[in-house]
């Protein structure tokens, strides 16, 4: 979770001109494959920015829940408890995979943005010479 937040924070700090990402498509190296077809990095940037508050809000709602209802469910049989553990494990694993994919996408986008800026700086330096 921390890696995801660090990656999005770095992306927000480095990507000063998101419009430079229009028409630029992800490279295969660190980016997860696009699920919605051919989305450019600008669309992916917008998506990653939109997802961040949802993840933060979801995390806050999980930590804000009080364990008040835990004493009322003591009548459940032990078989239901193991089923709950399996379901929780399944969902935690799924969440971990999603966060890993989001982190990879965020890091790949930030790297590509840095490459674009380097190319712009190189072409400006060559035109001055």
Quick recap:
It is built from three helices and no strands. By secondary structure, the protein is mainly α. The longest helix has 51 residues, at 78-128.
Please provide a written account of the structure.
- With 129 residues, the chain is mostly helical.
- It is 68% helix and 0% strand.
- The chain has three helices and no strands.
- The chain starts with a helix and ends with a helix.
Summing up helix and strand content along with how strands pair, one would put the structural category as mainly alpha
The share of residues in helices is 55-70%
Write down the secondary-structure element order: HHH
- Strand coverage percent: under 5%
Describe the secondary structure blueprint for this structure.
Blueprint: H1 2-14, H2 41-64, H3 78-128
